[in-house]
Design goal:
The chain is α/β, with parallel strands linked by helices. The chain is built from eleven helices and eleven strands. The strands form four sheets. A three-stranded parallel sheet has the order 1-2-3. β1, α3 and β2 form a beta-alpha-beta unit. α2 crosses α6. It is elongated, with a radius of gyration of 38 Å. The relative contact order is 0.10.
């Protein structure tokens, strides 16, 4: 094996070359790092910065703002409130028969949809609770009514109260709750006031009753009732009553039976858009909850085209809402009797 002998000069050259190489490499590495930092800084400067949105300011929920509805009542309700505020007024539905439960729930569904700020109450017969607790297998009517009452309480914020109902109720269709909310803001000179669709001279029970409850009113009402039997219709007719409160062709209450009296100038579209509540009551028809024979419908509906269209639209809208809200089809129509026919 041959040995390589290095002179001191060669060793010095190798050491010098190694030092130069190491420092050259470190200089290159530091330059590369500085270059990458510069490139990243340029990219950050050129790239558009995301706009930071300021946190949204608190906004009152629509429930506490202007109630929706017809523009006339919308504007009025923006500056007018019931005495004591919305927490002091309520829509109350009095039930006496199972067939009317869905009608009450339908009203509260519309109130919830249109965000009415008034409270909601259903008064139902306490006998339903007693029958439900005493039956091992619930009667289908009791079961359906209890289901609908639970839906009203859970979905539409309705307070349920069992009572001993005294008066029968009719059926109706709410179209615009703004007009109904408007009634809560009106001054009342009496503790009870009825609103009817017809004229004040026409004898009919009110479609809507405004009531300022009190113990005195309750005692006076009980004292005025006969001890054995009383005529419900005569009690309703004793309530002080005013006709509909039209403003600029806007009606709070209308009645299907009155559509027969409309002339050729009647416009069904305007009627449906400008009416808050329709009391569905026609002679010979039990009610919109029942599947009325076509022949009876043909003889009952208005003859003129536009009033007939409005009449048919109301019954069809009621039928559709009954299915959508309650999941119920129309009831089979029983044989009409003198006591069951509506007037």
């Amino acid at each position: 094996m041959r040995k390589i002998l290095l002179t001191s000069g060669q060793i010095s050259m190798i050491i010098s070359s190694s030092v130069v190489f190491i420092f050259t490499f470190l200089l290159f590495l530091s330059g590369y790092v500085l270059q990458q930092q510069t490139v990243r800084s340029l990219q950050a400067a050129i790239k558009p910065q995301p706009v930071i949105q300021p946190p949204p300011s608190p906004v009152l929920a629509k429930h506490f703002g202007t109630p929706p509805g017809h523009s006339l009542f919308d504007k009025y309700l923006a500056t007018n409130r019931p005495k004591g505020g919305w927490a002091k007024v309520a829509y109350v539905q009095l039930l006496r028969q199972h067939v009317h439960v869905c009608n009450a729930v339908m009203l509260f569904a519309i109130l919830e949809e249109q965000e009415s700020m008034a409270q909601r109450v259903i008064l139902y017969p306490k006998a339903w609770d007693a029958r439900a607790s005493s039956q091992q297998v619930l009667d289908p009517q009791i079961e359906t009514s209890k289901r609908l009452l639970r839906t009203a309480a859970k979905r539409y914020k309705v307070m349920l109260q069992p009572v001993e109902p005294m008066l029968r109720v009719g059926s109706g269709l709410a179209l615009d709750t703004g007009g109904l909310d408007h009634l809560f803001t009106l001054p009342m000179e009496t503790t009870m006031l009825g609103i009817s669709a017809g004229s004040e001279d026409e004898a009919m029970s009110p479609s809507v009753i405004l009531l300022r409850p009190s113990k005195e009113t309750f005692q006076d009402t009980l004292a005025s009732l006969p001890s054995d039997k009383y005529d419900e219709e005569s009690i309703l007719l004793k309530i002080p009553r005013v006709a509909d409160l039209p403003e600029d062709q806007v009606h709070v209450v209308a009645r299907t039976a009155d559509l027969k009296n409309e002339d050729d100038a009647f416009n069904s579209t305007e009627f449906l858009e400008s009416t808050s509540y329709v009391h569905i009551s026609d002679t010979g028809i039990l009610g919109p909850e029942f599947d009325t024979p076509r022949g009876l419908i043909a003889s009952t509906r208005p003859a003129k085209p536009e009033p007939r269209k409005a009449w048919q639209d109301i019954y069809e809208k009621y039928r559709q809402q009954r299915m959508d809200v309650c999941g119920l089809d129309l009831e089979p129509a029983p044989e009409p009797t003198r006591d069951t026919l509506q007037t």
